[in-house]
Design brief:
The chain has 608 residues and is an alpha/beta fold. It is built from 18 helices and 27 strands. It is globular, with a radius of gyration of 25 Å. The structure holds fructose -6-phosphate. Fructose -6-phosphate binds next to α9.
Length: 608
């Protein structure tokens, strides 16, 4: 089977606008997947025409524009996780009567395919989506009623889907449906959109409805009707706080660099509404504080970079709130049959709020009776909606596949929460808490900006490293947590093989890989562990490692030293993260990599 993580766009409105809106939307959604793209749109004679191909959206632009004046259409950008990207597998899929785009997985596709084959249908692709399209065709043929056919179809589908549909004999309407995959409806002036997320139509409107599971919508230029379980429903009108400029590159060479430069502001925006009188205050978030006070264990569950932010969170919760914390990889946690009770709080951290494993972990935690809290960047996303409570990070849209500012705000927010927790549990007095909050809210953003001012030095270090094919990051305590993130960032965008090691663990095997000329990035920002780090640094240097030292202390002997700005150790993880992100960024620039869209990766991982 071919599985997808994809972007969906649809437009209905004015003649002259459709193709432009669809192509623009698809380009904005390429972060969700970019191995093939397609469009189905009505031409001025009312004929439904389809253009699709492997490759980026730019590859179908010319052919799509040949459709000419069009008032309605749907589009899709795809990322396959199994099976080769091919023209046949690209969306839209359908028949002479309809075309359909899909994000998600139809789990019972094999069974449905067999049933449809017996009814005389044949299949040109190996996608589950084509099966859904043919099933819809069957129901439409049988009843002659479009809306009813959509409802009949989704009743038969198991798995997850966001669907955008157009029927050849109805050039003024888009049908949409969702279950467990995001889909929103943009509200324009005499125009409407469907999209996987708001960046797809942000240049044109900021108002939208978010479809809920089981919703089926009928959308024309004049009206938007949403039904659920056969009944008409209303959904709250939401307004995106982002403008289209904030979703674009703003003069930087890459979204990643722009997003690193937005870090200090994102941290301030995330913390500001939660600080009163220099103390943490989550009252506007309606957080259940008695829960924070009484829980006996905290789980931080997430994937990738978000999980690494959890490692920073653990150090603060354990160190200051004296609360035991487990940081869990969501894809492991969900299958490990975790022992949970109402005394446990499971914090799910996610930029997108749609990561399939994190969502499944959240559902499992709820089912097992734990309290749940989401730390999420996307308003109204599935994880945000399903958790008992939610704390939004205010990082704004993160477009580069490699997460940067989202990591910083997640780690900063977890820290603020830990301080609040420490106060509630009587582990920290207000005076100490105020000092900690001030460091986090005032000093750390300033230190991030100071790192950005010294970018040339980091760039020079990257220039010495970029030809390597293997690299190691070592650290102790929070420096180990940061090493994990530095290493992930480097490998995902530069394709240099890299490993993060707890510095003391290196000699238990991996040090055999440290030979003449191997680059090692050593982090030494925890003063109580400086002496220990120094011996680890000597261990690798004596074996010929080329050492880059990131430190706030006196520089030990190293080939390159990146000194952190003056900052309290408790919050130095923020400027250190910026250093590591910039090091990965410039190393990849020197290697000529496609930084914002690294190979094999997509921004929103909505499949397992
Ligand atoms: C790496 C990266 C990923 C994400 C992970 C979780 O740069 O971006 O590791 O952190 O896929 O995604 P979210 O935070 O959307 O749940």
């Amino acid at each position: 089977m071919v599985l997808y993580m994809c972007g969906i766009i649809g437009y209905v409105g004015k003649d002259e606008n459709s193709l432009e809106a669809l192509l623009e939307g698809l380009s904005a959604l390429e972060y969700r997947g970019y191995d093939s793209a397609g469009i189905a749109a009505f031409d001025c004679a009312g004929r439904l025409r389809t253009v699709k191909d492997v490759g980026r959206v730019s590859g179908i632009k010319e052919a799509a524009l040949e459709i000419g004046a069009s008032a309605c259409g749907i589009g899709h950008t795809r990322w396959a996780t199994h099976g080769a990207p091919s023209k046949e597998n690209s969306h839209p899929h359908g028949t002479d009567r309809l075309q359909l785009v899909h994000n998600g997985i139809i789990e019972n596709y094999a069974h449905l395919k067999k049933e449809l084959t017996e009814l005389g249908y044949s299949f040109y692709s190996d996608t589950d989506t084509e099966v859904a399209a043919k099933l819809l065709d069957y129901y439409y043929m049988r009843s002659g009623r479009r809306f009813e056919a959509v409802c009949e179809t989704i009743k038969r589908l198991t798995g997850s889907y966001a669907l955008g549909i157009v029927f050849s004999d109805d050039p003024d309407t888009i049908y949409a449906a969702r279950k467990d995959s995001p889909l929103i409806i943009g509200i324009g002036d005499g125009e409407a959109y469907i999209a996987s997320d708001v960046t797809a139509f942000l240049r044109r409107t900021r108002d939208y409805y978010r479809l809920e599971d089981g919703d089926v919508a009928k959308i024309s230029a004049r009206s938007i009707e949403i039904y659920n379980g056969g009944k008409k429903v209303t959904r709250e009108k939401l307004t995106a706080k982002w403008d289209h400029e904030s979703a674009e590159k703003g003069g930087y060479d890459h979204f990643m660099l722009k997003e690193i430069h937005e870090e200090s502001e994102a941290v301030v925006k995330t913390l500001r509404p939660r600080i009163k009188d220099m103390l943490p205050d989550f009252s506007d978030d309606e957080l259940n504080e008695s829960m924070l006070k009484h829980i006996t264990r905290l789980y931080i569950v997430a994937c990738g970079t978000a999980m690494h932010a959890g490692l920073i969170g653990r150090a603060v919760f354990e160190g200051h709130a004296k609360l035991p914390v487990s940081v869990e990889i969501a894809s492991e946690f969900r299958y490990n049959d975790p022992i949970l009770s109402e005394n446990d709080l499971v914090v799910v951290v996610s930029q997108s709020g749609e990561t399939a494993d994190s969502l499944a972990a959240l559902r499992l935690a709820k089912q097992k009776g734990a309290q749940t809290l989401a730390i999420v960047n996307v308003i109204g996303s599935s994880i945000a909606k399903e958790a008992h409570s939610v704390l939004y990070t205010w990082a704004g849209p993160e477009i580069a596949v490699a997460s940067t500012k989202a990591y910083s705000v997640q780690a900063a927010l977890l820290t603020l929460l830990a301080i609040r927790c420490a106060i509630l549990r009587g582990e920290m007095n207000e005076l100490s808490a105020r000092e900690f909050v001030r460091e986090l809210y005032e000093d750390a953003p300033r230190a991030i900006n100071e790192v950005l001012e010294r970018v040339d030095h980091i760039k020079a270090c990257a220039e010495r490293l970029y030809k390597s094919e293997d690299m190691f990051f070592i650290g102790r305590g929070t420096d180990y947590a940061l090493s994990c993130e530095g290493s992930l960032k480097l490998k995902e965008i530069s394709y240099i093989h890299s490993e993060a090691y707890a510095a003391g663990e290196l000699k238990h095997g991996t040090i055999s890989l440290i030979t003449e000329g191997i680059p090692v990035v050593a982090l030494a920002t925890v003063s109580s562990l400086h002496a220990k780090m120094l011996s680890n640094i000597r261990e690798v240097r004596s074996r010929g490692a080329v050492l880059t030292l990131i430190t706030n202390g006196e520089s030990e002997e190293a080939d390159m030293v990146i000194r952190l700005p003056e900052i309290s150790e408790r919050v130095s993880f923020l400027p250190t993260a910026t250093v590591l992100q910039l090091l990965a960024y410039y190393t990849s620039v020197f290697r000529g990599c496609d930084i914002d869209k690294p190979r094999n990766l997509a921004k929103s991982v909505t499949v397992e």
